[in-house]
Specification:
Blueprint lengths: L3 H8 L4 H22 L24 H6 L5
Amino acid sequence: MNTLAQIESAIWLLNVDELHELEQKVREVQRAKDKSNTGSTLDLPPLKIGPMVRPLSPDDDLLSEMLDDTRF
C-alpha cells in the first residue's frame, strides 16, 4: 500500500480492534513527527534590532500603566 486511496479502501476490511490499533499507531507517528519539527527559541540566533534610542527609566514602567488603566 503506497497511496492514500489504497489505505482508505483497506480500512474497511479491518475489525474494530484493528482500527483502534491503527489509530494508536497514527497518533504515535504524529507525535513523533511533531516533536522532530519543533525547535526551541533558544536555537535561534540573537536578533539585531539596532541601537537603543534611549535608556529605560522609571517612567517606562509599562506594567504599572497597564494595571492602572481604567479602560479595563
